[in-house]
Amino acid sequence: MANKWCVVVALISILTTTTTSCGNSDNNTPRKVTAAVLSAPYELLLVADKKWLSSGNGIEFRNIVERPIEGLPQPEPNFRVTTLSPKYYEGQYLMYGNIFIADINEKYTSTEIEVKHDVHATPQVVVTVKGPSSDDIMIHLDNRKDSVLSIFNNNELKRECRQLKKNHSANVSKQMAKVFGMDIFAPKDMDTVFPHEGFIWATSSSKANQNLCVYTYPYSGEADFTLERIIEKRDSVMKIRVQGERDGQYMKTEPKYTNGKIIRRNNKTIFETRGLWIMVKDAMGGPFVSYAQLDTINNMMVVAEGFVFAPNEKKRPLIRELEATLQTLKLPTKKSH
Fold first, then answer.
1. Residue 118 phi, psi dihedral angles, 5° rounding
2. What percent of the chain has pLDDT over 90?
C-alpha cells in the first residue's frame, strides 16, 4: 500500500504519575469536586504581588511556567499566563485548572511547596510556594523548577487523556488491535490509517496535520533504552515507512535538536524522546515526541510516536494532544502468535 508523503499533503491536524510534591508537603484533602474547570487548555493563573512580578525574582518565578516547550521549531511557552494580585483571588479565578501562587510573608519560619488537587474544580492543581522572603522561595525553587512545571503539564495531559477516552478514532483502535493486539486513543479526526506488519501510520485530515506511528522490534537489552538506539531504530523504520512524494525523500531525525530521558509512568519504564524531524531532499519538517517501552509478555520494544506537520501554525496544542495519546497506549495482555 502506498504510504507516500503526498497522501498526507493531500489530506491536509500525568506527571509520570510520579505526582511530585517537590520533596515537600502534598496536602491533599479527600473531597469530591464535580465542577469542571473554566480555563482553556494550557492556561495558568499566577497569583502574586504585581510589583514583585516585575522584579528579578518575580520574572524568574514567572519563567518557570512560561519558558519555551522543549522540542519545538519555534519558541512557544508551556502556558499562557494570567497574573492576579492575591486580594482578587476569588470567584471565577478559583476555577482555573492550573494555579501557581507565591505567598511571601514574614510570618513563615521556613519555605515549602504545597500541592493540592481538585480544590475548587476538576481536574485542577494548585501549587503554592510559601516563604518568609522573595530570596528564600527562589532559593528553595532553584532545583525544583522542572518538577513544578511537570505538575502543571501533567494536569493538562490528564485532561487531554480524559477527552481522548471520550472521543477518539475508532479506526486507529481497530487497526491497533488487528496489527498489535494493543489499543491507543488517538484524536478522532485521525481517520486515515496505513497498516503494515509491525507498523501503523495514522494521519489526520485537518490542515494542522497530526500523525501517529506505532512500531515494534525485538528487545535486545538495556541499550534499547538509550537515545542513540532510539534514533537509530527510528530512522531505519521511517526511511522505509514514511517517504516523500519523490524518490529519495524520507523522514529523518535531526539529532542535534533531539533529546531523550527515562521516565516512570504507571509503574512502567519509558524512554521519552522529543525533537525535530525533517524530510530528506525536501523542505518539510516539524516536532515529534515518542515513548519507547518494553512489552514484557512478547519481549518486544514498542514505540509510539506523534509528529506534526503544521507550517505557520502553533505547535503546542497539537504536540501536547499527541503526547496525551501516547499515554493512553495499552500494551498486549497476552502473547502474540
1. 50, 50
2. 81
Q: What is the pLDDT of residues 271-291, one digit of tens each?
A: 999 999 999 998 899 999 999
pLDDT number for residue 337: 64
Q: How many angstroms from the chain centroid is the CA of residue 38?
A: 21
Terminal CA-CA length for the chain: 24
Q: ω before 123 within 30° of 0 (cis)? A: yes
Q: Is the pLDDT of residue 26 over 80?
A: no
The answer to whether residue 336 scores a pLDDT higher than 80 is no
Instruction: Please report the pLDDT score of residue 245 as a whole number.
Output: 82
User: Nearest-5° angle of CA 166, CA 168, CA 171?
Assistant: 140
- Residue 201 CA to residue 124 CA, distance in Å, equals 34
Q: Please state the φ and ψ torsions of residue 93, each to the nearest 5 degrees.
A: -65, -25
Helix, strand, coil % (nearest 5) of the chain?
30, 30, 40
Helices (H), the chain: 5-11, 50-53, 56-66, 134-141, 145-166, 170-180, 227-241, 316-327
Give the count of beta carbons closer than 10 Å to the beta carbon of residue 55: 12
Chain centre distance of CA 312? 21
Residue 245 CA to residue 210 CA, distance in Å, equals 18
- In this prediction the pTM is 0.85
191, three cell numbers: 481517520
* pLDDT band, very low/low/confident/very high, at 31 (cuts 50, 70, 90): low
